[in-house]
Amino acid sequence: MQDPFTGPGPDAQFAAQLREGRFEIQRCDDCARHVFMPRVLCPHCGGARLSWTTPSGRGAVYSCTTVRRKADSGGDYNVSIIALDEGPQLMSRVEGIAADAVRIGMRVCAQIVGGEGAAVLVFRPEETGGADGA
Fold this sequence. Notes:
CATH architecture of the largest domain: Beta Barrel
Strand order of the largest sheet: 6-5-4-7-8
Strand content: 25-35%
Radius of gyration: 16 Å
């Protein structure tokens, strides 16, 4: 395990993993709880032993809103809080359906979009499937 106080910070490690096509979150080796946003200390127990682990990539929409834009500016999009099955919540968006069709409680799965230098984590409704390994 890397010393959490030297080298690239946890945010940089998370971003690098996404660019490599991997979605990973931290898990505390002391209290066994999952952690997101990436950090150097566990917010649950204060432990400094956080390891990277691959979550299932599945979760449910906890909250969502539709941001309205003109079509020539890219059209509407949603901003959603996703509650991962492992416990942590994160902000993202749900793609593959109309922005205003996203509903609280909807089951979703993670997908990494973009690539080198610009990878982001989004979610798709489970019935349309997400990326394997995300």
